């Protein structure tokens, strides 16, 4: 019954000639009031009932009407694509958005889902990538699959690539039986590309410029930008930048650029390119701004067809200098690069430009350090009668930097030879400079005729002082990593004496081919000033091969030093081979790949001076023996065919023997050696060395050593365990 009885209103609704509706409050039997929507519909024919009244709960009706409106909106106005498939996964229906993407959904009704986007693919990998498998899974299990990213070209826009977010749901009837499934898709191309640009920048920050190599940095830019931003990236640089020199100044480098090709040192090559003044490339270089070219049709230096190609030219600028040009090209999307894409390309190019400039500076510094190091190493080793020599020096990989290895051969008195090899820990210009100072110091100390242990002791003190003086500069710690080995070989006796300051000892292969390793552990590295250094004495037969080396020859990241020493020792069993061949054999056993440290190898094959090249005469400390020394010298030179030197040699021998007899308390030994020059040596048991001085006019003596110095090429004094030796070297005409 009516909760209120407005007779006039009801009468009007019942007698109306068309359907009318209103909202009424109805009183239910249980006593509560129900608000309902009531519709009065008059009957067209006369009958018992002239009006039909329909009532429904107002709230439920409004909800139903809202759902119908929503469905109508999804079908006709929503940007979300809705597509219904039957249980055979064939198209049944699509809304307006789907109809627009497919350029008419009617033509696809009854066709399988694969026909909609035949070249598309799922780029989300957390579900099966095949669309049929996804639909089959949803139909079978009823589990929805949501948020799958799908990439393809819509029939309505076959040129541009789009990305959609797709979800799949099963449709069931009132009994719960499957009717099919529906797909909802939303075009997220812009959002997806924005995320790609962000991830591209993150990836660029990690990859571009990490190699400190100009060529590799150019390749890294292409690796990062392709294919997300462009289908191809070209980098053109001036030759000066590639070589590590300053970029050209004064004008944009548009006329002499080299295009980079290849991503590895083996593949790397360049081709020359130049741009006319009116070209967009020249404009970009001249203005230092990006230039978009959407209508290119090829050029003289780029004959490849460029139809439907969009290009973006971005100058490589770092520290206000134009280093080159980066070209971004794409053919899959012919539209010009948009503002966001241009901003991204500029950001990537700026990172690459900084990386290229850093690599250029590093290349320049590395080249300078390498030139410095090689200038400090011996350019050639002097020929000696004592030994045959061959050597190899391999610098560390350029990414590591120049190291501090050095080696040297030092001619000494008495036909002896000093051999040294050393290593400064660290890399760079400072290591090379430290190496140069130490090599010069070793040579200076060696010419004082110090024995190996004494030489290393003095060198240790100098290194320690240098470390203390440079500690304030933060460079002193590196000097504490200096190792050095010094050896002296005497071809007369075959005696070899060496001492080591933290350096691997030499490996010796005698004339029979047997290889011996030293059992004595090396002393401490230079600069520590702790334990003393010890001499090791060996007797070497003629033809023995001695290998001096740095740890780069026998040690790397993959093998330990013991394995490397065994490998080198095995090579030395072929000691009858020429030394140059032995060097090549030794270095060929190094593991392939970049060197982590300098590798220095010095091989010497010993010789012995024959008995016919050495003459010894022992004299008692009697002044009358000076005449005998002159006579025996004249006779020996006549035997050697050196009579032209007789007068000079007799005078030198006379002065040296006279000086020794005057101050010695025991026998005096005269030794003549015929080598590349004539060597005259006088040894005694006195430890006082004579000094060269200029005698006054009224002095009765003091001119002997002055005459010796004037008549000989070199002269000097060396100390022995039993006294000293004064020597003079005369040139053989």
From TrEMBL:
Cited Pfam families: HATPase_c_2, PAS_4, SpoIIE
Annotated stretches, region: Disordered: 267-307
Biased composition (Basic and acidic residues): 294-307
Residue ranges constituting the PPM-type phosphatase domain according to the UniProt record: 387-606
Keywords: Hydrolase
Chain ranges of the GAF domain: 190-366
InterPro entries per the UniProt record, alphabetical: Bact_Sigma-Reg (IPR052016), GAF (IPR003018), GAF-like_dom_sf (IPR029016), HATPase_C_sf (IPR036890), HATPase_dom (IPR003594), PAS_4 (IPR013656), PPM-type-like_dom_sf (IPR036457), PPM-type_phosphatase-like_dom (IPR001932)
CDD domains with a match to the protein in the record: HATPase_RsbW-like
Stored PANTHER family: STAGE II SPORULATION PROTEIN E, STAGE II SPORULATION PROTEIN E-RELATED
Protein name (Swiss-Prot/TrEMBL): SpoIIE family protein phosphatase
Organism of derivation: Streptomyces hyaluromycini
